[in-house]
Structure formats: C-alpha cells, structure tokens
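User: structure tokens for TonB-dependent receptor, please.
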Amino acid sequence: MKKISGLRLCGDNVAALIVRPRVLKKVLEWSASCLQCATSPQSVFAPLSQGGIQKMTNTKTTATAGRRKAFVIALLSGACFAEAALAQSTPAPAADQAAVDEVVVTAFRKSLATALEVKRKDVRVSDGISSEDIGKFPSENIAEAIQRIPGVQISAINGRGSTISIRGLGPQYALTTVNGQAFKSSNFTDGFRYDVIQTELASGIQVYKSPTADMDAGGLAGTVNIDTVHPFDVKGRQIIVAGKLQQQELIGGNPTGKYGLTYVDHFLDGKLGVFLGGGYQELKDRGDYLWMDRWTVSNNVYTPARLRYRRIDRETKRSMINGAVQWKPTEHLQMDLIGTYAEDKTTQNIHQQVFLFTTPSASNVVPITVANGTSTKVQVNNFRLENNQQYENRPQSTSALTTKLHYTGLENWDFNAVAHYSRGNAKHNEEAAVLGINIPSATVDIADPKNVIFTTSTALTNTAQYAPTTLIRNTYPTGAFRTVGSHESAAQFDAKRYLDWGILESVQVGAKTRSEVLKRYVIRKDNQVVPASFSPTMANSGIAVTNFLDGQMTLPNAWVSPNLDAYREALKAQGISVYEGFDPLGSYRVERDLTSVYAMANLRGEVLSKSYRANIGVRNESTDQTIKGYIGSTANPQNTEVRLAAGNYTAKKSYDNLLPSANLSVDLTDNLLLRVAAAKVLVRPIIDSSNQLARTMTSATDTTGRRIFTISSGQGNLNPMTANQLDLTLEWYYGQGNGLSAGYFSKKVKNGVFSQLTCPTSYESVALSRDSSGVCVAANGDNYMITESFNDSRVVDIHGYEVNWQQSLDAWLPIEGFGLIANYTHVTPAKSTTGFRLANLSEHTANGTVYWENQKFSARLSANYRSAYDQTSVESFFAGPLGHTIKARTQLDLNLGYNFNERLSFAFAAMNINNAQEEAYLINASRWQETAVTGPSYFLSFQYKM
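Assistant: Done. Predicted tokens:
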C-alpha cells in the first residue's frame, strides 16, 4: 500500500468535502485552538466550565481575537496540523510491512458492518444503524440517524429532526420501543418525539418492517426499537467523558454545550455488570417563516387574504440518565434492571406579524395581476395588522423502568419474564400580548416564489403607530396551560421449547397484559384587555426584531414587537390577577386495557438444497377502551372563551384482532439471501390536533369581535386501522461490510382514519352555512371549524420498493478507507382526494453518504433527499385550512473526525451546509405558499476514555 502523507490527504479531503465558504471559514478560524487541544490533552476538559470556555477562547490568534465567540475549536484543520506536528513525538509503528498494509475495520465502517450483520442474521425484514462505540452514535440526533435507514423520513422543527415516518405512513403509525418495550411519548398527540432523546442512549437502532408474533402490536408502519447499552456486552471497565459545543448559524451568539459521563464495570467475577450514563445539553435554534395563511377564492382565482411573519427563537435544556444492572448468579439465571429518564425543558419566544388583508372587508384587496388562477400582485387598503409576542414554556419528560428475568435451567426450555413501566409527560404554558393597528396601504407580489415583494405605507418599525389610546386591539395574556400525559404498565411471560423435530426447531408461546392511559387537561387564560392608562408603550418597551428570513426576499425584515415582560409588570403593578378558567371541552382521559397472547413456530431446514430459516405465528390482541370527558354548558362568565362543565360522560368500546405473521429467509447461495414476509398489523385509533376520541372545543375572538370555534365532534367508536402487508427482498452480502439489497413491499390498509371539516345546518341551535370561501359561518360572522373523523370503508393500497447499497472502495481506489452507503425508496400512495389520505408522504426519498477513514482521520459527506409532500393543518401549523405541498429538498451534512490516540477523539459536524430551505405551494406549483429559513448548524465534540 502506497504511503500517503496524513497532512496532505487530510487537506485534499477537506477541500473536496467543504462545499460552503462559511464552513471553510469557520474551520480555518478555529484551527489554532484545535492545535492547542491536540498538543495539550488536559485542555480538552476546559469546556466543562464557563471559565474553561473563556480560557480556551482567549487562546485564539491575533487575527481572530476580535471576532465574537463562536466555536472554540476547529477540529479537522487543527487535527491535520497536529498530525504532522506530533509525528516526531509519536512512537513509530513496527517495521513489519504486512502489519502496516493490513486493513483494519474501525469506527464508522465498523458500525456499518455491525448493522449489516444484524440485518443479515434477522429473519425479519429490518434495517438498522449501530453505534461504533459507547456514546459515539454516528449522528447528532436519533431522528436524523434513523432517516439514513431506507423507507424512513423525518420531520423537523426549526431544522432539528423530531418525528419520523416509515414507508409513507405518519409518525403516529409507527411504534417506538426501547429494548423491546413501549416507550411512552411525552406528547401523544404529536407522535413520538425523538428529539427529546439524546443519542448516547442508543447502542443500536433497528427498524422492523415485518413483525413476528412475539412483538407488540401497534406498528402499522413498522416498529423502531432502540437498544441501550448492556454492561455484559462491554468488556472490562470503561469510563467515558464527552463534551460538545454546538451553534446554529441563524440564531448566532455563543455556542451552547453538552456534557456526558458514562461508567461501565463488572463485579463478582463477572457475574454482576453495572452501566450508568448521564448527560446534560443546551441547545439554541431559530426558524423564520413567511407564509400565506388565508386565501379568498372566487371564480377559481386564489387571492391573498392573510400574510404572516413568524420568527421562533427556541432554547432547550436537556437532561438524560440511563442505567442498567445485570446479574447472573448462576449459569442458567440472569436478571436485568434497566432504567431511562429523559427531560427536555424547551422555551419558545415567538414574534409574529399577521397582516389581515380582508379585515375589516374583503374589498380591501384589489388584484393588479392575475396569472394561472392566482392574483399574483395585489393592492391592499386600510387593513389590520396584529403584532404579537408569544412565549411558550414546554417542559416534557419520558421515562421507563424494565425488569427482566431469563431462565434456562430446564433442559431445552427458555423462559423470559418482564415487568415494565413507562411514562411520558408534557406541559405547554403559553401567553401572548396582541396589539392591533391599521395599515393604510400595502402591495404584495408573489409572482416569483424565490422573491416575495411586500411593501407597506407605514414602516413596521415605527413605534408611534402603537400609541395605546389608538390601538384597535391591546390584549394580554391570550394563552393557555395544557398538561398532556401518558403512562403504561405491562407484564409479560414467554416460554420457548427447543424441539429439533425435523424442520421444527422450536416453538414459543407468550402472554402480555398492558394498561395504558392517555390524558389531557387544559386551563385557559384569555382576553385581558389592557387599558391605555397603564399599557406599556412600544417606544419605551418594544423589542426590535431584525434580519427576518436572514435578509432574503424584498420585504420589511425588521419590526418592533410588544414586550411580554412589560405587560406582566404593568398588570402586577395594578394588582390585577388574570382569571384561569378550566376548559372542560379541551380535557379528557382515554384508558385502554390491552391483553395479548401468541404462539409461534421457528423453522429451519433445506429445500432444493437451499437452507432456510422461518417462523410462522399468530397473535391475538384484545382491547378494552374507555373514554372519559366533560359535557359543556353555557360560556364561563369570567372567561367566555371556555364553557362551564355541566357533567361528565363515559364512552366504552371493545374489539379483538387476530394478527397472523410469517417470515422466511432462504440462503440462495452463501452470499445471496431471499426474504419473504407477510403479516397483518394494526394501530389503535390515534389522537392528534383534529382527530379527538373525546369531544373537544376551543374558541377565540378576533379583532372584529367575531368568535372562531374549533370543534372536534369526538369519535370514540372508531375501529383500529389494520393492514395486510407483504415484503419481498433480495439481499447480497459480499465481503465485510459490503451489501446490496432490493425489496418490494405492499400494505393494504383497512379502516384508515380520515378527518374532514363539516358544516351542519346548525350547531347548538346556531344556524350555519358556508361563505364564498367555503368557511362555515353563523349569521353574526362567527366561524365554526367543525371536524369529524371516520373510518374509510375502502381498502387503500400502499406499495413501493427499496434499494440499499453499502460498499467499501478499497479494491477500486489506490487509497484505502473510502466507501459509500446509499438507499432509495419509492412509495406509491393510493390516488384519492377523499377518504383516508397519506400526508407527509414523499414518493421518492434517497440518502447517500461518501466516507473516508483511517485509524486517525475520518470524513463523511451525506445527502438526504425528499421529494414533494402534502401537509394539512394537522401536520403543520403553516399549512393553513387549505393545506399545502412542501417542495422537494436536499440537505447536505458533513462529519469530520480525528482520533488523537486510543483514548481521545474529536469530531466536527456541519448540518445543512447547503442551507436547504422549506418552500411550499398551494395546489399549483407556481402559487407560492411558504418559505422557511433555519440555516446550517455546527457541532464540535470530544470523547475521552479512561
């Protein structure tokens, strides 16, 4: 093997991989600090205190001393110089040329090989990703790691991965488990939130696309299982200290930190294993959103009716602790105790401008240019602007405790018993100050989706127009306090009998009981009109908001926003306490008792001289569901936005489902494998913002005094969604870590749930009808958004195919260490404009990663592509009542690594380095609907093993 200079090779790859000038700029600026870390290992621990951060920042060269604090270290370029600088002090390798030329599978390539081997050995159709070492998961976020798996898509909040979809079905159709047991979501109405979990929790993640009878039901799309670290899987004692600095470019400021400690040890001659891991993380990010929230439709022409600015500044403080104790007192008995607790304290500071073009009258809007069914340029006269600051405090937590007992003391028998408890809680406290003024005139031009042009006759930064005596609206606080929680307790027993009767290798049976509770409790705090006599003035307390959309578009990118702190102090000085009213129609409780039994046969043999493995089984799931809610009466006189409770109601429903499954894996050759899997799967009725099992209603009052009622009729009698699915895959394994697979899948979904807005002729004795825009209104102008949910009587066919490739390029290139991974998934949804439809579905998704590594350096450049996908107001706040389509986008991520020695390693990551944005249109691709900017993020980390 030709010897390559580490410095030269590193530099060549940096130049090839860094595709944005700002990334290169940061790397160069931070290189001096990295060199100091490399030459002084003890300085690595400086970031563990603020003093340390200050100390390290002060070591910057004169050329960079005047810059504001960004990251302290630039890993790769500093590491490149360190490699050359340390060459004289590093012991030379042995002269054995064979040892030098030996290919060593390490780090990222090792994680790929491990994941591929797990996939190969599994009889099910599955894909996964593995940690290369404890605490070194190959991604910054578990959701972002999972998206590298074929068929998996993620949805992001402020650019941070949060929820996933599998094969076109949304996040609430996937089941998430930890070590095979349910992990309750901290907010069950949003689907499982992966961003509350730090990557250090996982040693591996597997997505099971075909189930076996011994798995919990509930994953209609698939089951995501997160395996945690088990001490018996780790050799010897390990103590690992880790730290990370991270920064999102759009929000700026100083980087935030993350710190972690892991301890693994063994006692009693290896019979007792202990693992304990903990971490604390702070994050800051920002998202800027510009979108058309409402349209008027006349003669099939869409005219802008409501334009919105929204800037979201988010701060997160995240803590996690997980541990495991494994005890094996005898050869045949093992007991495990595994616990996990994750807490996420997130606050959001939202500054928003809402331009109500059609208020007080739709005649305010005068089209100037009309093209392709859209008023692309309009003149707006004498309309209202609502300017608000909204603060949201969103603490959430999720936890689980599992005890396991495994006994093999009886010949040919294997027994497992599990007791499990999991809980998720979320609290959402929000308040807002809303100020309304009149804007004399404005023009809006959306002809070019890349450059929306918006001008106003009065500058948005002019504080004089916010004189308290002339405000159209001046309210505080408009908000609520919501508590959402779920918990589950479970017990199961499994017995396996090894038979070796011909092809029948073993049989197993089991039973499980689960008790699940989902609950929601809401208190409203609304419409405290603030008198002008003591209202804060914008001139003295207003907050300057600047650089909206990162300076993009031709529009006012700065405005002055009300100050919530000033409003709190003003009410406090007057001795005013805001009434907190219980919202009975927003509160409910769902209880489910789930009982399941299963039987499964495991087979192994040969057919036509081809060896195979298989299982066939059946699972019966019994569900007893009870919904408890409140009956509303008249409006609460102290807060007319909510009703008084007139009583309670209880709705019960029970059902049974028989779920057969079969999996077959045939070795066509030593390296070629064929899989066939068929199963019936289910997901119980889900709850989201429009589909409520309980009856719910909220209301609000706009600046004209009209009320907006949001009502869910409550469908406690919905049946579970089921699907008959088929998988057929061909997998070729050739060489260590190399593999190519292609597969076809089909899901025929029955009882698909869909929700639709309805407009009955009356509601609670109020006559209703639809206006020209299709909005359900009363005679006095009040709006009624009434949602009903139904089971679709059709069988909806979802099918597609996947291709996955992992390849080392050592045999093809003169330089060892290069490789690639790539996958592509195509999903064909049922084409229907009515009934059950798939939102958040991209028909085409693809991921590709090119990597290079040796024992010192590593580099990865990843691309993640999603084709266009539809969203409704259920999936996105920014979709509006008519929904929208998110355009296709590709995101590029860069990861660089340097191993200083066997104990100390560094990593640098730049996420979304191409500044991919979220852009949306309404029905017609030329009809602009939304532009969202989040920008790139940067991470710099170290890990030290003691």
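User: Anything notable?

Assistant: The first helix runs from residue 6 to 17.
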